[in-house]
Amino acid sequence: MTLGEPAEPLRCHRDDCSFVDGGSCARSSEFSDPRAGCPELVRLENKPDPQLLDLLKNAKLGPWWPDKAGPMPGAPAPWAGDALVPEDIRRLLGRSHPRVIAVVGDTAAGKTSLVTSFFLQLANGHRDGFPYRFASSLSLKGIRDLVHEAARWSGSADAPVLPRTPSSPGARFIHLGLRPAEELDDRHIDVLISDIDGEVMKRHASQASDLTRAVMSFLRRADAVIVVTDAGALMTEEGVSHDRETARVFGRILSDLDGCAVRPCVALVFAKFDRVIKTLEPPPENRRGEPEAWETLRTAARATWRCIEQARRDGFTIAVFPVSAFPKKMSEGQPVNVVAPFAFAMRHADAREVVGLPQHEPASGCSSFDALRRWRK
Amino acid sequence: MPSRAASLSVLGGPRSGKSSFLGALWNAMEVDHTRLARVPRSRPDDTLALDRLASEIANGNYPQRTNPDERHHLTFALELTHPQDDHGRHVSVLVSDYNGEEVESLFRYRTGGWSEEWKQRAMASGILLFVRPSAVERLPEPEAPPPTEEDRWRALIDPHATKTEAPPTTSVPALPDAPSQMFGAAPVSDEDERENTARADSPVREPTELALIELLQFIREVRGLAPGERPRPEEAFRIAVMLSAWDTMERDWGSAGPKRYVLKHLPLLHDFLWSNFRSDRDIHYFGVSATNGDLRNPQFKSEYRRQRGLPGRVVWGDNFGRLRDSQDLSVPLLWTLFGDRVFDHVRDDPR
């Protein structure tokens, strides 16, 4: 019997087989060429079209094997696992006071890379002083897709680390549930990090409409705004365009937040700083809020700095960060400073006085401490 | 003495060692390699699934799943033998086994698959959660002293500037000196739970435990537990984290133990369990070796068959920080049913 082509990556029905991992076939004594002869390997049903095989080889497949079974019978999973949409948000609002972090900026500035790299640091146990530990996420599937894409990046500056964020009719959020690392603090804090296509933000900046306002309406609820700008792009001849676009998005956001009783903090992130590090050293931490400390970036990001100054005058708390989310391929090196903007955002959110929450009467059988804990959230 | 019924869920991805453990455990119970429990004199009517798994192991083969859709509903009938008020009590433990690839499929395909069977598994008395450490890409050793932000930027300018002699990637963090030999190794403390701080040129690891964490989240959802809510005593269920093929980890992690391994190399899973359960009551970490050697090694397999099956091995840390080591494979299963008091009745088996 002629066996079909083995599915790639290799997969075997036998638990004791290490052939799929580069070891030896569990039935190696029976077959000189397990790929051709072993029936335990999962194989494609029919001999595939060679062109299709080429397409599959070049396509961006995940580390998991193609699953012949596909969707299984049974009810849908309790949640989709991707970026949250407004209906998911409403569910969260019923149980806690989520922190909302708006990540904004021009297209390809590095917004999604920043968020992905931040999650990877938590997942690798590199919290870098971030005083929270991972507790939950409704977005694990979406996060894993992003992580997997990042892991496949070639390391070339000419190729994006991640594909462009897809457009969607509403705002999308990545969800993380965090628990304070302090043992006695048993809160669970939902954190919603926006994941919005830069084109939508650009359109909102230059041509605000009811549609774009609807997408960006969450801003007035944001605890922090992280403005991401590409340091590498800024230092090129085309950088003036990137600076202007960033400033327009930033300016529109400041305008949208006009009149807000409780202001979010603002973090300006100079992303992809690895691309300028050889010619520009980041200033010491205590001077990062000063444009003149950034030397050539002061000029290159003139319009953006102007927005920073405007935000300062309007009473926003500001911080500036040089960041490199993926300076190299994941297998070759660590990011730099990706946790710091989120730590700043969470510190600000924690310090804000939460106003307007109803007093909770302890429910029957519920201790007053428990009720207080829930109120504090 | 009244008998008791319980159910356990055995969770884990593909090739995580679930079936091998179950087969080895039943095998061990049949030949009295377990001390806390044994097969009752009056055997249950249907032990075919367990017998098949046990026979495979006894013959020196890891159990195979001939049909990916095959389901095993295994009933472990135990007669408890430890000398306490439960001596002689019969416990019937229903273990639901399945194809490990379903965990991945559940994670990927959200429009279906969350079956009634899975929901029943979610309501089990306890969970045996299998992870195969040899399949986990290890995180590099932390750097001491931890690099500063400036160090990391400097490393991007001149990678050779950070090429100092690095500690080996398989070295185990040194345990703090015990105050006395009597108390053995110190327990995992807050200091041990300090963050890893990687070298600038260390790889960033793609976490492999996301599907398992998602499954645990689904289970908590079915049980009515909110994220971050640690179960009250009346809601509590135990999770035994089973690091399979632990014999392959002995050289590097034998003195540190399974909990430290998870803390170091599966930090996301560790944080999830810490955040959502009472670590001192609901979670315990076991290093498990079903066969105490690799049956794919022809010499070991031959010796294993010649000896009519060698005892397996279980390693765990007790509440005093001591590493315990026993040939009794029933320890993790009984811990999920009865908690820490089981450890009082386990005899260590020195190597």
**Overall residue-averaged pLDDT value of chain A:** 81
Radius of gyration of chain B: 21 Å
Low-confidence blocks of residues of chain B = 163-187
Share of helix of chain B, binned: 25-40%
Question: What's the shape of chain B?
Answer: globular
The portion of residues assigned to helices of chain A is 25-40%
What is the percentage of strand-forming residues of chain B? Answer: 15-25%
Spatial strand arrangement across the major sheet of chain A: 2-3-4-1-5-6-7
3D shape of chain A:
globular
- Structural class determined from secondary elements of chain A: alpha/beta
Cα end-to-end separation of chain A: 65 Å
Strand order of the largest sheet of chain B: 2-3-4-1-5-6-7-8-9
Largest interface: A-B, 73 and 72 residues
Straight-line distance between termini of chain B: 36 Å
User: In terms of structural class, how would the helical and strand content of chain B be classed?
Assistant: alpha/beta
Main pleated sheet of chain A: 7 strands, mixed
Number of strands of chain B: 9
Q: Spans of chain A of 5+ residues with little confidence (pLDDT < 50)?
A: 45-70, 355-363, 366-377
SS field, number of helical segments of chain B: 11
- Rg for CA atoms of chain A: 24 Å
